[in-house]
Design brief:
Keywords: Signal
Structural class: alpha+beta
Number of helices: 1
Number of strands: 4
Organism: Mycobacterium numidiamassiliense
Protein name: CDGP domain-containing protein
Pfam families: CDGP
Low-confidence stretches: 4-26
Shape: elongated
Helix content: 10-25%
Distance between the termini: 46 Å
Oligomer: single chain
Mean pLDDT: 73
C-alpha cells in the first residue's frame, strides 16, 4: 500500500514538473478572410516568431474536384522576408 502511494505521488510530481517547465503560450490566431487561419508562435529572444498560414488548394479530379487545406509556416520579424500568401499581414505578432 505504501509503495502505491509513493508511486502515485511521484507520478503527480513528475507531471506537475512537466507542466510548469513548458514554454508559455504566446500564440495568437486570426481566422477567415483570404486564408483559413493565420497563427503566430511565441516571440523568440531575437525578436522573430513562426507564422503558419492555412489556405485551400484546388485539386482537379474530373467531376469530383475538391478544395484541400494546406499549411505553410515561415519566419516573421526583424530581418525576415516571409514572401507571399499574405504572410506579412499583419506585419506584427498576432496576440491572443
Amino acid at each position: 500500500m505504501k509503495r502505491c502511494v509513493v508511486a502515485g505521488l511521484a507520478a503527480v510530481l513528475m507531471a506537475a514538473g512537466l507542466i510548469t517547465s513548458a514554454p508559455p503560450a504566446g500564440a495568437g490566431c486570426l481566422y477567415g478572410g483570404p486564408v483559413l487561419s493565420k497563427c503566430d508562435g511565441p516571440v523568440q529572444p531575437d525578436g522573430t516568431w513562426q507564422r503558419c498560414v492555412a489556405f485551400t488548394h484546388w485539386i482537379p479530379s474530373g467531376a469530383s474536384s475538391f478544395l484541400a487545406p494546406e499549411r505553410r509556416c515561415d519566419s516573421m520579424g526583424p530581418g525576415q522576408n516571409p514572401g507571399d500568401l499574405g504572410f506579412a499581414d499583419p506585419p506584427t505578432h498576432i496576440n491572443d
